[in-house]
Specification:
With 368 residues, the protein is α/β, with parallel strands linked by helices. The chain has helices spanning 23-40, 131-147, 163-167, 172-175, 195-211, 223-233, 247-256, 268-275, 290-299, 306-310, 315-324, 329-345, and strands at residues 20-21, 47-48, 58-59, 63-66, 70-76, 90-97, 104-108, 111-112, 114-115, 154-160, 177-178, 180-181, 189-190, 216-220, 240-241, 261-267, 351-357, 363-367. The chain has two domains: 20-190, CbiD-like (2-Layer Sandwich); 195-367, no CATH class.
Length: 368
């Protein structure tokens, strides 16, 4: 349920692109404003929050309502120039005081889905609110309650207007998220999704690295894997190329404009796609082939898992299943990704290593 992982997107022309805010950032801002109103009687408008990377955006309130024990705030999501199905949606947070000792409780309101299948970062039966947005809202609530001298015993209900209808345009139904959308986001920021513009930026990143004489560059599928690989190799920010889903764009340009060493890093699911030979890792254009994944497990002694793998909901579910059986699938995937990358480079003088991480950025495998 990572940002973009379960969303079907359309392409846009390559123009000057404006970034926007994730559903999780909007939900956090709405939560802060609603709880502030509940505790003080005043709605802060605009309301400011701090994102995981330190940015402090402000959000205008589109709807507000309060009574003695609860308050609700709605914020219109601005996804910038990203063709996001939730752009313009009203994201609402209703907060309610609970009895002491209840803690912070998340609830799925209208338009927010509930998880019904394993393999996602949220347990079955829980609202489809990803861990980072939950963390952001928890931090906001904890801080405000501390300021006002009360314990953080608060129910947070997140709703998205017309979310159930919008969810039909995403991968949520296939992933077993029923009733609505997911509340997504890892950084709080939506980066515009234009293939041409993104690939162009990858090319410019390689050009800069070559001009600066950097012997080693990193292409990662996301922020968690990038952070892990960057720290592992001690690389500067300039050496980090924003590969994202565009492994093909990175490898083809390096073939003609080589750098001595390339590290490819990514989460297990994205790396499975690349190991299969997919050069565009976006969910709208490539999928993990469970038959192929079952064959990889079979080669490692997991033939007894074939039926379970074929019935699995996500690659994450297969990862957890094989790990519980002592089967080191990530190392096999890393080795295959390295072979695919070397084939794509067609003999260019680029040494390649591959790092596979979990959702938290923990290193699962390293092929050198």
């Amino acid at each position: 349920m990572d940002a973009g992982e379960n969303e079907i997107r359309l392409e846009k022309p390559a123009t000057a692109l404006r970034r926007g805010w994730t559903t999780g950032a909007c939900a956090t801002a709405a939560t802060r404003a609603a709880l502030t109103a509940l505790l003080t009687g005043e709605f802060p408008d605009p309301v400011e929050i701090t994102l995981p990377r330190g940015e402090t955006p402000s959000f205008a309130l589109a709807r507000e309502q309060a009574d003695s024990d609860r308050a609700m705030v709605g914020i219109i999501k601005d996804a910038g120039d990203d063709p996001d199905v939730t752009h313009g949606a009203l994201v609402m947070a209703t907060v309610r005081l609970l009895s002491q000792g209840s803690g912070i409780v998340f609830k799925a309101g209208a338009g927010v889905g509930t998880v019904t299948k394993a393999g996602l970062p949220v347990p079955v039966g829980e609202p489809a609110i990803n861990p980072v947005p939950q963390m952001m809202m928890t931090e906001v609530v904890t801080a405000l309650c501390h300021e006002h001298g009360i314990t953080p015993d608060i129910e947070i209900e997140i709703a998205i207007e017309n979310g159930a209808e919008l969810a039909l345009k995403t991968w949520n139904p296939r992933l077993g998220i029923v009733g609505g959308l997911s509340v997504l986001g890892t950084t709080g920021i939506v980066h515009p999704f234009s293939c041409a513009a993104w690939i162009h930026s990858i090319h410019r990143g390689i050009d800069v690295a070559r001009a600066e004489g950097f012997p080693h560059v990193l292409g990662a599928t996301g922020s968690s894997s990038e952070k892990t690989a960057q720290a592992f190799h001690g690389l500067s920010d300039i050496a980090c190329l924003d590969m994202g889903d565009f492994a093909g764009g990175l490898l083809k340009y390096l073939r003609a404009h080589p750098v001595p060493r390339l590290t490819i890093a990514g989460g297990f699911a994205k790396m499975c796609k690349l190991a299969q030979g997919a050069m565009d890792l976006h969910s709208g254009r490539s999928q993990v082939d469970m038959e192929w994944l079952a064959s990889q497990a079979d080669a490692l002694g997991g033939i007894h898992l074939k039926d379970r793998i074929l019935a699995a909901n996500t690659a994450l579910e297969v990862l957890e299943m094989t790990r519980s059986e002592g089967i080191d699938l990530p190392t096999a995937i890393a080795d295959k990704v390295r072979s695919v990358a070397l084939d794509a480079l067609r003999g260019a003088p680029v040494a390649v290593d591959v790092m596979v991480t979990d959702r938290s950025g923990n290193l699962l495998a390293h092929a050198q």
